[in-house]
Design brief:
Number of domains: 1
Structural class: alpha/beta
Radius of gyration: 18 Å
Strand order of the largest sheet: 1-2-4-3-5-6-7-8
Order of helices and strands: HEEEHEHEHEHHHHHEHEHH
Number of strands: 8
Oligomer: single chain
Number of helices: 12
Largest sheet: 8 strands, mixed
Helix content: 25-40%
Strand content: 15-25%
CATH architecture: 3-Layer(aba) Sandwich
Length: about 290
């Protein structure tokens, strides 16, 4: 939860560009309407955003990669313009299933996936459940949700506060750790602007559903799909440094001087993804323009 608060507050400091000339599209994912956009042409890349964000947060990456790839950015259920169930049972593994159903909807047999924070955790679970559907993966700011490293231990009030219907901005401030710097007046105003676009109860339902997305070391060590883990040097560095020895099958990239939220906004984040994709470039099948 602490990292969720970090990524939300950090993203507010940046103008999130709209994805130009990309019309909203929707599909039915087992009764839940999911919004997605498609930009560019070439090998498909599916983008999975952080908590409380939407497809728009990928604007810089879409602009950069859509010259060579087909970028498919989705709004996860409970977020953006997708439907927002209030039942926690509608989240968890269903968020992985949404990605697979989107691929089926578009006729994609195999795709690159890129996810950050919550989206990275969804991506990690997909790597363990559906490796046959992924050609390569970029996981930012996450090694997945686990039973032993629960976010609920750090900020246990966020889920209950959101489920109570507390406005999103108030829940984020009220749930922050006691030693967390309080946002200034300008940050508070920016956070309040997000309230109109957020369904607090839906976000709370997602927050308490992580058991369905848990991964363990045995599963992560079995990942054979080329996978790059990108993290900020100021974001739990010791955790990631130790993980390098535990998971030699994964590639790691540190963005020095960056925290959890700012790492995703860094030009080095885009450059690292580009280098990784170039390294594993192939004549993979593409999908028709949508």
């Amino acid at each position: 939860m602490k990292r969720r608060i970090l990524v939300v507050i950090s993203s507010l400091l940046f103008l999130l560009p709209c994805i130009a000339e990309a019309a909203d599209q929707f599909f039915d994912s087992n009764g839940v309407k999911i919004r997605y956009i498609v930009a560019g042409s070439g090998e498909p890349i599916i983008l999975i955003h952080p908590f409380a964000a939407s497809a728009e947060i990928w604007g810089p990456l879409v602009k950069d990669l859509s010259q060579s790839y087909q970028l498919i950015a989705m709004d996860c259920r409970g977020h953006g313009k997708s439907e927002k169930p209030h039942d926690p049972k509608q989240y968890g593994i269903e968020m992985v299933n949404d990605v697979v159903r989107l691929m089926d909807h578009l006729g994609i047999k195999k795709s690159v996936i890129i996810g950050y924070s919550m989206g990275g955790s969804i991506g990690m679970k997909m790597l363990t459940e559906h490796p046959d559907r992924i050609r390569m993966a970029v996981i930012g700011g996450s090694l997945g949700f686990t039973k032993y490293e629960s976010e609920h231990d750090e900020v246990p009030l966020l889920g209950p506060n959101l489920l109570s219907g507390m406005p999103f901005s108030e829940a984020m401030i009220a749930s922050a750790p006691p030693d967390w710097p309080k946002p200034g007046p300008q940050q508070r105003e920016m956070m309040k602007r997000m309230d109109a676009d957020q369904d607090s109860i839906a976000l709370g339902a997602e927050t308490v559903s992580h058991e369905g997305l848990w991964v363990d070391d045995k599963e992560l060590k079995a990942i054979a799909v080329p996978t790059l883990v990108i993290y900020g040097g100021n974001d739990h560095r010791a955790f990631y440094d130790e993980a390098k020895s535990r998971f030699p099958n994964l590639r790691f990239k540190t963005i020095e001087g960056a925290g959890h939220g700012s790492a995703m906004q860094s030009p080095e984040f885009l450059a690292s993804i580009g280098d990784f994709l170039d390294h594993y470039a192939s004549d993979a099948p593409t999908i028709p323009a949508h």
